[in-house]
Specification:
The chain is 47% helix and 22% strand. It is α/β, with parallel strands linked by helices. The protein has a 4-stranded parallel β-sheet with strand order 2-1-3-4, sandwiched between helices.
Length: 101
């Protein structure tokens, strides 16, 4: 099973340096299409979506986070950072895929 990042171009670039494929998106329409393609793929086991992009598709991403098991949909912090009440990117990635950044 593969991991795919859908989100802010900077986040996708960062994950690509670690060998994780991604789809850079900037609009809700692009994000919606990228999610459709990722959900249809049998190879993708985890979809990481940056918070800024998840906010554009809030209802859909929340539903996927709650009900999708394969692929697992995980919301990760956007490049702007996280608020103090949310876990850091390294904590989210460690919990989601077991890799310590």
């Amino acid at each position: 099973m593969k991991v795919l990042v859908i989100g802010h171009p900077e986040a996708v670039l960062g994950f690509s340096l670690a060998g994780v494929n991604g789809q850079a998106v900037t609009t809700a329409e692009e994000a919606d299409r990228a999610l459709d393609v990722a959900l249809a793929s049998k190879e993708i086991g985890i979809i990481l979506v940056t918070q800024d992009i998840a906010g554009m598709l809030q209802a859909r991403v929340e539903d996927l986070k709650l009900h999708s098991t394969i692929p697992l949909v995980v919301e990760i912090p956007s490049p702007a950072g996280v608020s103090p009440d949310q876990p850091s990117l390294s904590e989210v990635v460690l919990r989601a895929i077991g890799i310590k950044l």
